[in-house]
Amino acid sequence: MRYFAGAARNLPGAAAASIAVTGSVRAGREIAAAPAAGLKHVHLELGGNAPVIVHDDVDVRATAAALAAVAYCNAGQDCTAPTRLLVHHRVHDAFLAAFAASARKLRTGPPEIVTGGARLDRPGFLVEPTVVAGVRQDDEIVQEETFGPVVTVQPFADEAEAPRLANDVRFGLAAGVRTSDHDRAVRATRMLHTGVVWVNTQGAALSEMPHGGVEHSGYGSDLSLSGLLDYTQVKHLMLGAPCRTAAGTSQRHVPIPWIFWEM
User: Fold this and answer.
1) Three-state secondary-structure class, residue 228
2) All residues at 6 or more sequence positions from 103 whose CB lies less than 8 Å from its CB, including other chains
3) 112 is catalytic
């Protein structure tokens, strides 16, 4: 069954074979612990805080515009939204200016908004699309998922430092790489410790491909055959009944193995 995050005391009882949760790390911890005595299968999709590595061989303006469009989509309330942009130091300043300019052009509805992070003076809980620079790796805004229209931009020195900064948080759901060098992209994807990596695109998803994270982003997959198997129980069946000939004499019978997946 699928259980939407709430108090752990509201978890279903012994009849439930599996519990799936999409929510915060705290909710995931509580719900994973609650059914432990019954050894229930638990599927967790938790936080994101996705990094994107931007190398110095990209079209700066086009890359900034593309990332701004995806980062602030749905007001940034997306577990795979790019929230930490790691930009090569040679293009950092130009990218930061282009990204901020793209963010200023975004609208939440009339009138036009301005970058800065202030609350909008209108009914509702609305915040301007926000770009934050000059952050340190251990700052809370870098280490934790904001789940809102807020993106940090950090410089990196070389190809080795970029994935180190990207991986240096407790989450591992999604990441991105922007470069025109295929070999560099492949090297980066191998070093990024996340369940999903996008190269020169962001947010694209296919039902045939698995979606899941590592570390504090949870465990288990949605979508694809991997996601289907995560909601089933494998059963090994070996058929080895004796076999007799028409004359009634026994013959050696080779057992036939079967594998079933049961809901």
Assistant:
1) helix
2) 68, 72, 115, 129, 130, 131, 151
3) no
Alpha-carbon distance of 128 to 42, in angstroms, equals: 37
Q: Which residue from 222, 100, 194 is spatially nearest to 151, judged by alpha carbons?
A: 100
Active site residue 79: yes
From the candidates 45, 128, 145, 215, give the one annotated as an active-site residue.
45
Q: What is the pLDDT of residues 53-78, one digit of tens each?
A: 999 999 999 999 999 999 988 888 88
Q: Which entry of 79, 128, 145, 215 is annotated as an active-site residue?
A: 79
Can you list the domains of the chain with their CATH numbers?
8-46+215-230 (no CATH), 50-212 (3.40.309.10), 236-262 (no CATH)
Q: How far apart are CA 197 and CA 178, in angstroms?
A: 11
Backbone angles phi, psi at 141, to 5 degrees: -65, -25
Q: Give the pTM.
A: 0.73
Q: Which residues pair with 82 in a beta bridge?
A: 50
Give pLDDT tens digits for 118-152. 677 778 777 788 899 888 999 999 999 988 889 99
